[in-house]
Amino acid sequence: MKLHRLTAVILFLLMLAVQGVLCSAFGAESLKINDIVIDNSDRLIYIRGTGSFKGAQSAVYAPTPSNSSVNIINNITPFTISSPFRYVLDIPNSTLIGPSRNYKLQNSIIQNVALSQFSVNPNVVRIVFSVSKQSDLSKFKTYTNGTDIVVKYNSSVIDNSIQYKFYTPTGDSNKSSLLQNTSASLVYNTSNEIIEINPRLQTKYYLSQISQNSDGLILRGLGQISMQRASYNDDNTISEVILDSATLASKLENKTYNIPSSNKIKATLTISKLTSKKIKLTLKSDNTRDFRFVISPDGQSLFVSHRTYVINTIFSTNTAKVNSYKMTKNSNGYSIFDIVFNQAVTYDVFELNDSFYLDVNNLGDYNTVLFEQMLKNSDIKVQVLKISQDKTRFIIPMKDLNFAYANVESNAKSIKLCFKEKAIIPAVKNEVLIAAKNVEKEIKDEKKSQNLNVIYIPKKDEKPEVEKPKKKKEPPTISSMKKVVLDPGHGGVDSGAIGGGYYEKTLNLAVAKLVKERLEKKDIYVYMTRSKDATMTLEDRVNYSNESNPDIYVSIHTNSTVKEDSFGLETHYYKDDSFELAQKIHSVFASEKNLKKWDTKDRGVIKSCFYVINHTEAPSVLIEIGFISNLEERAKLLTKERQEQIAESIAKGILEYLK
Ligand code: ZN
């Protein structure tokens, strides 16, 4: 480890000497590494990136390998280190998106995977796999399929025992040929290199195929689908469904598909990558509320179709029975409705008339006795309805429920719905709404405006507004004032991270506005890169800041990760002249007192080569105010009190620095 630190110091010194070259390394040719995905078998680690290896230079930074098998693939030279035993991958010409990460794997031969930006010039991302035995090191092999890197442990082929037929149309055998079985598989070429990778994923979903039949679109992948509650625009012509913890095959990115319909109802589905860990499905039709997303028994496929077709179709010839119902409440007041079946089920969820519906498409008997027992012990009055021989509907009245966390999760034989009984705090609802109102288009329908999760989606043909900020004219008196550029992250078509139906862009703006108020009270002149929900490129933000010539630049973001238990506060800086600012803000923002009061965690001041803090001329920082992906932290972030406290400490830190 000491050696590495020394190397890092030398690299750092070298880096200073060639600072000019540094930023050009972020051209189109470099690879951006988002994250890793680990399959169920613990034999495959899938490193997801965007960009390409093709531009990688042959000058690879890596010590000469000594004691291991080495595969050189597109300029990647793995090597191993002993005590502890580690397999190290240095990926040239690459940038890690986000902070360094360390994954501890349970029940796995690979004990630990660490990702970090090892050096910035040349740009090298280092990935270190730790194992307990030296003999394990030789079992690693590395492959690439262009943009993704796959680290394969062991030579075994992945278990492909989970095969199923999701959807078999009745009476027409030709149709079923459209639907191939899904199985986890690796396809090798003659030199035993992986040419196609279909990892089964543990914590994520990998959407890899689209096919269709006469009445719907089938989205097929590997892993486990976790779907967020759908959001609709005000006339229901557009709806959005977010798949959490999901990655997308690049061939499907930004593709639009017609949803076939035998009753000639026109609809399209666009698939896009919202973040590196979320897929957005955008449905457009005259009434998108008429469409259903049916989840397959193994949770790996989605069938998108009109409700009339879904209702009249037999999805599985095996009807399931209910083994148990549970309505439990966790310490945060969230209710979890958990149904366990005797076999795998297909289901879909939707919302209608202030109720949440769960249709189980192969449930013959819902077990009246168990159901009534559950109802006795629950304050939530779930209704049940047999809608056909093989379909059962559960209806949860939503009037007083707050679906802050509306994810539906299934594990083949069980379905879990999570929701909260009452609004977190009535004030929160108003606050979020006020923020949303200020930044988003006025929602005319009064009823809908009371719904927390209504979001603004541009209507058909409506181009999202692009705000090109103009430099404010400075009255002569302010020339002596200190100036700050506040940059609320994302906006407009770019929602940033999404958690429980809430958009990062909205939170960032709400907090930035509160910081502005406080700074202005102290006679600081504040420039905002955006003061409403507008689309802005990173370049726009940088140009705006540089033209405004402020004393400092502060970007406000909300963090997100696939690991839902991650939480805490981060302050990022990149340039040396920004470190002091980062420290000053962070020490107030993540003070002992605040951490205690808000039960959160100090994740540190981090050096990160994010575009905005790397290209702005003034000392600049990027603050991650907490994790929108974490249920508890999100609930806090949505409160006015927490937002004000964060704003207060950011403002305080800024004032300290400007003193
Ligand atoms: Zn962000």
Task: Explain what the structure shows.
The chain is an alpha+beta fold and 659 residues long. It folds into 4 domains: 170 residues, no CATH class; 108 residues, Immunoglobulin-like; 102 residues, Immunoglobulin-like, CATH 2.60.40; 220 residues, 3-Layer(aba) Sandwich (Aminopeptidase), CATH 3.40.630. Helix content is 21%, strand content 35%. The protein contains 15 helices and 40 strands. The chain has a 9-stranded mixed β-sheet. A hairpin with a 4-residue loop joins β24 and β25. α7 crosses α9 and α9 packs across α15. It starts with a helix and ends with a helix. The N terminus is likely disordered. Bound molecules: zinc ion. The site of zinc ion (ZN) has 5 residues, from loops.
Describe the structure concisely:
This protein is α+β, with helices and mostly antiparallel strands and 659 residues long. Helices cover 21% and strands 35% of the residues.
